[in-house]
Amino acid sequence: MDALEIAMQGGITFRKASAGNAAGEADKLRTKAKKKGYVTGAHGSASAMKKADIRRRRANRHK
Description:
The structure is a single chain. With about 60 residues, this protein is mainly alpha-helical. Helix content is about 55%, strand content about 0%. It has 4 helices and no strands. The radius of gyration is 21 Å and the shape is elongated. The mean pLDDT is about 75.
């Protein structure tokens, strides 16, 4: 049987990627968007400041 027939008859199982490969590569990736100054809007970008304000309001919504 080819792969299509196997998938149609048996179904497809989606699993989380193995922790060894995915986590190791994700830690190496470092972009400006992940740094605290960009997330909090400290660098002066209007869109980042607005996003930070939205995040702050959402965090304080049910306190």
